[in-house]
Amino acid sequence: MTINALMLSASRVGDSAYLTHTVELIRPLTKPGQHWVFIPYAGVSVSYDEYLTKVKTALATLPISISSIHQFADPKQAIENADGVLVGGGNTFQLLNELYRYDLVHLIREKVQNGMPYVGWSAGSNITGTSIRTTNDMPIVEPPSFTALGILPFQLNPHYTNYQLPGHNGETRAQRLLEFTIVDPLTPVIGIQEGSALWRQGETLTLIGDQTAYLFHGKQQEVEIAANSDLSDYLK
């Protein structure tokens, strides 16, 4: 068994409906009759039941059934029995904190390394890197550790954009990621724009979608990565 993980930048592209653009990207990871577990822990401002309904409705054309981990008395057993896992967006700090609270970090990492398909978007993608230190989110809670799933051996920054509002004097995203590379020059960061995703299949990593991505690594700042590039070298 090999890793089969899809890291989507976002749940929407522009004005598209929720998860619409993701369905055909997720489909190759699924098989008819599978049961997948959804993890809604990042959803702070929506109830878990509402979040589940939203996801099930959006992904209804996939040949899988979906239930939420909050519906199970034993979250670890839910992961053990799942054919695949979906991890939604929201607040990355809250998501990782809950995964630690239920002792799921090591279990999910192990299951994915042994072939269980993984699909995440936004916060659900952030946690697939080595840590959540390059999330865009506010630290509304303090997880026991920033160490994440490590499905990817580098840092992710979903929703990447370096747009700056006229008259806004705060740091741009590129400036924030520069700060990261100054304090940690050895760890690459890949920023993925909305509409794109990273797909890891074993030791192959591909940027999919029609958007470029951007690399931040040491003195390399905002280096453009062409759409559909092979990024397998970043797994070494």
UniProtKB/TrEMBL annotation:
The active site is at S122, D137, H159. It is found in: Cytoplasm. The keyword Cytoplasm applies. It comes from the Bacteria. Its main location: cytoplasm. It is an enzyme of class 3 (hydrolase). Its EC number is 3.4.13.21. The keyword Cytoplasm applies. Keywords: Cytoplasm, Dipeptidase, Hydrolase, Protease, Serine protease. It catalyses: Dipeptidase E catalyzes the hydrolysis of dipeptides Asp-|-Xaa. It does not act on peptides with N-terminal Glu, Asn or Gln, nor does it cleave isoaspartyl peptides. Belongs to the peptidase S51 family. Hydrolyzes dipeptides containing N-terminal aspartate residues. May play a role in allowing the cell to use peptide aspartate to spare carbon otherwise required for the synthesis of the aspartate family of amino acids. This is Peptidase E.
